[in-house]
UniProtKB/TrEMBL annotation:
<dbReference type="InterPro" id="IPR045087">
    <property type="entry name" value="Cu-oxidase_fam"/>
</dbReference>
<dbReference type="InterPro" id="IPR008972">
    <property type="entry name" value="Cupredoxin"/>
</dbReference>
<dbReference type="GO" id="GO:0016491">
    <property type="term" value="F:oxidoreductase activity"/>
</dbReference>
<keyword id="KW-0167">Capsid protein</keyword>
<feature type="domain" description="Plastocyanin-like">
    <location>
        <begin position="40"/>
        <end position="145"/>
    </location>
</feature>
<keyword id="KW-0560">Oxidoreductase</keyword>
<dbReference type="InterPro" id="IPR011707">
    <property type="entry name" value="Cu-oxidase-like_N"/>
</dbReference>
<keyword id="KW-0479">Metal-binding</keyword>
<dbReference type="GO" id="GO:0051301">
    <property type="term" value="P:cell division"/>
</dbReference>
<dbReference type="InterPro" id="IPR011706">
    <property type="entry name" value="Cu-oxidase_C"/>
</dbReference>
<dbReference type="InterPro" id="IPR001117">
    <property type="entry name" value="Cu-oxidase_2nd"/>
</dbReference>
<dbReference type="InterPro" id="IPR033138">
    <property type="entry name" value="Cu_oxidase_CS"/>
</dbReference>
<dbReference type="InterPro" id="IPR002355">
    <property type="entry name" value="Cu_oxidase_Cu_BS"/>
</dbReference>
<dbReference type="Pfam" id="PF00394">
    <property type="entry name" value="Cu-oxidase"/>
</dbReference>
<dbReference type="Pfam" id="PF07731">
    <property type="entry name" value="Cu-oxidase_2"/>
</dbReference>
<feature type="domain" description="Plastocyanin-like">
    <location>
        <begin position="349"/>
        <end position="453"/>
    </location>
</feature>
<keyword id="KW-0131">Cell cycle</keyword>
Amino acid sequence: MQAAGVVAASPFLPRMSLAGTGDFLELTARPGTAPLLGEGSPEVPIWGYDGAVPGPIIRGRKGGTIRVRFRNELDQPTSIHWHGIRIENSMDGVAGLTQPAVEPGDTFDYVFTVPDAGTYWYHAHNRSWEQVERGLYGALIVDEAEPAFAPAQDVTLVLDDWRVSPSGRIDEGFGDMGDWSHGGRLGNWLTINGATRPDIPLAAGRTSRVRLINAANARILELDLESLGATVVAYDGQPLAAPEALAYNPFLLGPGQRMDLLVTPGAPGTLALIEMSGDPFAFGQFVVTPADDQEAEAPALLPNLLPEPDLANAVEFDLDMAGGMMGRMTGAIVDGRYLEGEELFASRQVWAFNGVAGLSPEPFFGVERGTSVILNVTNDTAFPHAMHVHGHHFRIVARSDSEIDHRPWRDTFLIGPTQTTRIAFVADNPGKWLFHCHMLEHQAAGMKTWFEVT
Ligand SMILES: [Cu+2]
């Protein structure tokens, strides 16, 4: 992890609001530079939305419509996925499944309703292992019908893990099979909203909502949230019925996952945001200053209304995850052919679901709209994974044969080596939906499938 760096200023308030306008937001993917390494270091060439990392915060209101006129000024095709939105299928942005990739110089209009208030994000979904790593991501915030927190107490932090070469540029060893077949591309430089060890302002005696988004390709962040005195109010966008104490510490936040915290600093001073997966490292700090007026009570968040799966009458499917280094997989079907050994490795498809690497012409399963679905997922690999369901949120009902009582809605779950996880949801959103590992190198190397709701 990086040594002590210079504290950089960075905007922590939304740069853009779409609420209430009928207009299109113009959003362009293009190369740019960003001060990823902090003040005093040269800016780093990146690819970003509007040339910035992160891209602009896109903000809508629950039940409203977001209209984005997207333009691709990169030299490779791309698309945008709106992660966690229970979205219309044709707007889900999965190149090759829900739309053709947007070619260089072309535009695509994304128009979709945002049914749920909460913390979401958007990112590239074509060659995402390269495009997201180069910086193509941003926060997508859906406000409650009445905004719940004052802007100064509503803080969005997009966390990323970069692999920076000694020359101070993004390491261009994309597609390294060592990364693809092990734990994905793990970096050596952490940023918050594209800044190195930033100061994040908070007011003493005030309750702030802190939205955390893990935009890293592969790193599971291990965050010391206990030292912030934080409680949790939402996972993966969906508010809990009431704020909850942390179940454990440090808290794991996998790639693609979000969590919203309430933080109420008592007195002026600083509170470090510490990452514990290596040596404990403060990669940002909350700078607490006196509040200039009386504290208003922190507003309660209302849960979104999601359909509850009927566990007794659900249709069950099993998914066996296999492959990778130190795994037991001997072969897999790639593009309709069974490959093993050297030939499999040469295909770059080294992970499989139910023996199939990558997308097959037939879905993993197909159900009629409204069907309650249970997925029994077994991780028969030597690595943890972050499994993401598109277009739906689910509840985790059991882990390795232990029933789970606490079942917040999620759109991405972590599963450890040899673990099994049972998730349930109502397949109520018609279309073709991806189900994949959000460690983007794993996804590229075969860890994906799709299901169809008709
Ligand atoms: Cu994975």
